[in-house]
Amino acid sequence: MGGSNNVNSVFYAETYHPIQAGSIDGTDILPHDNAVYRALLCSNASLYDPLGDPKLIGDPYHTIFVSRLSHLTTEHTLHKAMSKYGRVKNLRLVRHIVTGASRGYAFVEFETEREMRRAYKDAHHSFIDDSEVIVDYNRQQLMPGWIPRRLGGGLGGKKESGQLRFGGRERPFRAPLRQIPYEDLKTLGIRPPPEGRYMSRFQVPSPPRKRRSSVEKEEYSHKRSSVDREEFSQRSSSIERDGHKRTAGGRQESSSKRNSVEEEHHHRKSSTDRSESSQKRTPIEREDHRHKCSFVDREELSHSRSTAEGGEISRKRTSKDKEERSSKRHRHHGRSNR
C-alpha cells in the first residue's frame, strides 16, 4: 500500500486507544514507552471515569478546550479573548490545587454549538498574552476511550517532553507508508486507517455533533412544521391578496370596456335609427322636411344679411358724424382767426 500520494495525507482519531495514540501513523500494536503502557492498564481496568469529575459543568457540545495558555493569563483576559467568537456562558481556568497557579489550560462554554464551532475554527493558533494557544473540542466527555495525560494518555505534546501523542488536531496521524496489520489491530480493538479517505494538513477536522433524542427530534419537527405552516399561510394570503387585486382590476377594466362598448353601440344605434327614419319618410314628408330646411336656411341668410347691413349703416353714420365734427372745428377756427 503506501505510495508517494500519501506522503502529505493525514487522518484523525475518532476513538482513543493508548497504543494507537503513541504511533505516528496509527498502526503500532505494542506500547513503545512506559506512559503508554500505564494508559493501557488504566483503559483496560476502567480506572478512569471521564464523567466522574465533579467540576464538569455545562454542555460538552458547547465547550472548547484551550491549552498552552500563559501562566499570567487570568479568567478575565481569557473571557475577553473568547468573547470575540460568541457569548461565553461559563469558563473554568484549571489551577493547581495547592498553589492556585494556572496549569496552562481551560474549558470555555458558549451559549450555542454554532458559537463553539466558530471559536474552534478561528481561535486555534491565536495569541493570548503573547502565547500561541491550541484549541480543541472537549475530548474528555466526547471522545470514547479517553485517557488524560496525567495517566499516560492525552494528545499532542512537545518533543522535549518525550511523550508525544498522535491523532489529535495538533499532531494528526500520518498516512501509513508500510503494510497495515489489520488482524492485529482488530484484535486490539484499534480502528485501522481510513484508506482512500485521508485528509490534507490544511483541512480542519470537524468536532462531533450533538445527536438529538427522539423528544428533541419531535420538538424540532413540530417547530419546523409550525414554521412551514406559517410560511404557507403567509404565502397563500399574499397570493389571495394579489388575486383579489387582479380580480378588482380586471373587473374595473371589464366594466370600462363594457361601458365604452355600450356607448359605441348606442351611438351606432342612434345613427342607424336616424338613417332608418330618414329612409322611412314618405315623399310628402321628405318634401315638407326639405321645405322646412330651406325656410330655415332663408331666415338664417336674411338675418345674417340684415346684421351685415346694419353694421355697414352704423359704420357709415359713424364716418359721417366724424366728418361733420371736423368741418365744424375748421369753421370755428377760421372765425377766431378773423
UniProtKB/TrEMBL annotation:
Keyword Transmembrane helix among record annotations: no
Locations listed in the record: Nucleus
UniProt biased composition (Basic residues): 327-338
Main location: nucleus
The RRM domain, residue ranges: 62-140
One of the record's GO cellular component terms: ribonucleoprotein complex
Gene Ontology MF annotations: mRNA binding; snRNA binding
Protein name (database record): RNA-binding family protein
